[in-house]
Structures are given as C-alpha cells and as structure tokens.
Amino acid sequence: MLQRTRSQFYRRWLLGWLGFLGTLLIAACGLGPDSQIVSSPGAQTSNPTASVLRIALDPDFPPFEMKTSDGTLTGFDVDLINAIGGTAGFLIDFNEMSFDDVIRSLYAGETDAAISAITINPDRLAKVSFSRPYFKSGLGIAVAADNADLTSLESLRGRRISVQRGTTSEAKALSVPDAKIRQVNEAPEALQALAQGQVDAVINDVPVTDYAIRSGAVSGIKQVGGLLSEEFYGIATPKDSPNLEKINVGLTTLLSNGTYAQIYQKWFATEPPALPETIPL
Ligand code: ARG
Questions:
Q1: Would you state the pLDDT for residue 68?
Q2: Which among 124, 151, 175, 275 would be 20 to 30 A from 263, CA to CA?
C-alpha cells in the first residue's frame, strides 16, 4: 500500500517536472515568432516614402483580373497596378469585391483606387475620377458557334441576353427592345450560360470573350457583329484624390519605358495600340 503510494508520488513528481520542462520549451519556441512580429513593423517603416494604396478589384474578368488555382491574383490589371506601385512608390493592397461594389467602395472611402477593366464613361465620371486611359477596348456580341440568325445588336430584339451586372454591357443590353436580360455577378458565368444554351447571346468586353475562347475556358461560341462601342479603361480614384497625379505619372513612365508594352505582350501576344493621353470624352 505504502509502496504503491510512494511510486505514485514519484510518478506524479516526474510527470510534473516533464510538464514544467515542456511548458518552458513551448514558451521558448513561442518567443521566436513573437520577437519577429515585434520587429516587422520596423522593417515596413524602413521606406518612409512608400504609402499603402488600397485597390478595389473584382477578380473574375480574365485576362484583366483573375486567380490562379492556388488563389494568387494575376492578370493584366494586376501586373499594371503592381508596376505603377513600383514606380510611384505605393505598396499595393488588393481588396476583392463584386464589380457592383468597386466604384461604390471609392466614394465610400473604403479604398483609394480601383482597377478592374473599368470603362471611363460620363456616369462614372460624375462620381469618381479616372487616370489617363490605359487600355483600348469595346463591347461585342457572342452567340452559339452554329447560330446564323444573330449577327447584330438589332437581331437581338426579343432574345435572351446575359450580361455582367453593373457593366457597360448591361446598359447596352437594356437598349435592346423586348430583350430578356439575365444579369449575372461575373462575366464568365454569362459565357457559360451561353455555351449551355440557356441564353441566346452575351454582350461583353471583346478582349474578355476573345480570351475565354482562346484559352478554352468556353467552347461552342463565337463573336459576331464587330465592335458595338469603343471604350477606354481607366484607373478610378475618389474625386480630388492626391493619389491620382502619382498614378498618372507612374502610368506615363511605364508607357514610355517599355514596361507597359511588355505587360501587354504577355497577356495579348501583340503590340499595344496607341492610347490617348487624356480622357477622350
Ligand atoms: N468594362 C466594363 C465596364 O466597365 C466591364 C468591366 C468588368 N470588370 C470586372 N473586373 N468584372 O462596365
């Protein structure tokens, strides 16, 4: 009886010590990362001129903004704004949201700038400011590859048209008499609906539909009717933002030093067209 009690005592004593030593060990390991965290704000402030630019974007508009399978943001706009950050001395902080929220987030003061293949137009210019144009684009119609009837905007009268909500494509579709419009959150969903025969046509930015066909993301569709409109994309900021000038200077630098052309080549495998220096509206 006594024997048992004594061995229990030693066992507890030993376990107690082991537990204590274990706690010390864990605490010691814990110190490593903690001390690193303490030092990291110091590292960030080592470049006092770099300020953080909170960028709004809707990351589902390939090849302008999209995510790789591991969730990394990529695309023409992502490369461009990162390069602007590099020349203009901004640290880029991406804030993902639906396209509908992108411009709203600017005037709500939640973000500092937006890049999302945003067409510069009078409606938007009433609410936010835009950089000089950075991309020449336009709207187009996509239909099933074997459809010979739908060839123009007029031919879409009374048809089922899918568009991304809040876009210039939506506005264009609303101008078609008697059209049955199906708004979706992201442009790729509209193209999928067309490929599956759920709608008769999609109105979308031509380079995005082109890329979807070229990359094999959708099959059995084609573009018809040429360009419905010529549009220019700009980087948007809240009105009177002190960052707009720096963004414009950065963009101009990239346009003249060949970086813009390099990024364009990477995503579109061709030379970029000439761009106007100011907003052509
Ligand atoms: N260019 C069109 C517009 O401004 C569509 C842009 C959609 N962009 C996006 N990232 N989903 O209305």
A1: 96
A2: 124
